[in-house]
## 1
Amino acid sequence: MFIRKMIIMKNIKILKNEPLSNYTFTKTGGNADMVAFPTSVKQVQELLNMAKEKNMPITVLGNASNLIIKDGGITGLVIILTEMNNIEVEDNLVTAQAGARYIDTTIAAQKHGLTGIEFAAGIPGSIGGAIFMNAGAYGGETANVVDSAMVLTPENEIKKLDNKELDFGYRHSSVQDYDDIVLSATFKLKPGDRDKIQAEMDHLNELRASKQPLDLPSCGSVFKRPKGYFAGKLIHDAGLQGYQSGGAQVSKKHAGFIVNIDHATATDYLHVIKHVQDTVYKKNQVHLETEVRIIGNDKK
Ligand SMILES: Cc1cc2nc3c(=O)[nH]c(=O)nc-3n(C[C@H](O)[C@H](O)[C@H](O)COP(=O)(O)OP(=O)(O)OC[C@H]3O[C@@H](n4cnc5c(N)ncnc54)[C@H](O)[C@@H]3O)c2cc1C
């Protein structure tokens, strides 16, 4: 029987044996031993100390919009940063905490008449996830607008990394290589016309809504863009749209998305991913690498 237990440790809310499907955009995933919701950098540092003392592995999540968490769940401590979500604007700099939504950051920039970040108006992740992934859309990339980020190293030290040190690449940043935790990021934008900025954001969000299955749970584009191809076109041309395993289905609206149409499990998602990869490889000899991060334990 599932028992949900909440404890408060040093003012930090911690849930035990918590289903991560409550947080993932796909609405799938097993349980975490513990989930903590820090509200400050100090609390994140305290959690790192506690995990070290108890020899517990740590996993950091933002908005869980780019994740498949396997059905066996996550061992140890999951830190969800969404309660650290402050956004500040000073001159042409916008500084957002790791748990702030990228969407809210673009809204704050627009309100202050700052341009450059409109491309992210519909990206449903957090700032931490956006730095980690170098999230991008419609020709824009996080790398192009980030001035610097504050991170916590695995040694529990706060460090400032400038754009160069973040070593951005296609869906890559140095955070992936060094297991840093992003605490906040500062975006350097340019003065612009509020109405024009809003119009561009509206335009991109309309485009998104017309092409993407936003009415169903998903994790966005499942596969990276292979060199010289488009993942969605390869999947479409292989006749895979509508392919289904359990409750997970290759979207009929956008071939690059896998949607949860009927109580899918993470295992259903993984079956669909494997089938798509195998079929596209057989047909085109192109390997589709996942953009979505697959983490956690297999179900026993
Ligand atoms: C409908 C839909 C549309 C999408 N459209 C786009 C798009 O246009 N462009 C695009 O790039 N992506 C898109 N995505 C994917 C996703 O929103 C981005 O990858 C986003 O940047 C992930 O942020 P997150 O907070 O959800 O990260 P999560 O899914 O929570 O985590 C992703 C990875 O980042 C790590 N991480 C998260 N926060 C931190 C942190 N603070 N410090 C260190 N590591 C961290 C996690 O450990 C994990 O490995 C879309 C997703 C959906 C569901």
## 2
Amino acid sequence: MSTQVEQQQDFFKVVHERHSVRYYDPAVKISKQELEEILQEATLAPSSSNLQPWRFLVIDDQDLKGKLLPIAYNQQQVVDASAVIAVLGDMNWYQEGEKIYSKSVEAGYMSEDVKKQMMSTVENGYHHMDEARKKKIVHIDGGLISMQLMLVARAKGYDTVPMGGYDAAKFNEMFQIPAHYENIMLIALGKAAKPGHPTVRLSVDEVTHWNSMK
Ligand SMILES: Cc1cc2nc3c(=O)[nH]c(=O)nc-3n(C[C@H](O)[C@H](O)[C@H](O)COP(=O)(O)O)c2cc1C
């Protein structure tokens, strides 16, 4: 019981201490192994039919970060943060259904029957979906993974800033992003040199309706 309470308090501390950080210590380099651990934890995020449309491009090479700087409208965090993670959404993501559900069956989490049902959803649903609906799913799941990534990073003592302020067309050209990937956002990740500034929120009253939107 007490352990559970402690864990919950840790979680709330992480939530309260995450702020968008725009000044990073350029001397801090997060290892590939630690970046992979952060990504691994982040991928525990939920996704539509567990089809996990997120793909990541990790940019931690200093020269490449320099090339990204003008594309991200000269936001200095791009070069000073240890890495910039481009969160992308694969518009053909549901083609991984067979692989994902087979893994679930192998792990004993799903029966063959349920796998068949899920594959029928993939084949009859996702394959025939219009582009706008597919994009919506990819962006919703992309937002969930991005949030989870930022919280995992904070829990590990690192800081982040999500970034939509970049020229996606130029980014795609520079990093040769195939056409079937959607740009979700960039996330700069590193160790703060200056804390993020506090921000306000609308009150729950201002953003919540109960039982009816009237
Ligand atoms: C999708 C998205 C795009 C954002 N783009 C940028 C950006 O390009 N540059 C930046 O400095 N902050 C960016 N932000 C950070 C927001 O300004 C920040 O989250 C907001 O002011 C609340 O502050 P907090 O994150 O510290 O709580 C972005 C946030 C989101 C969710």
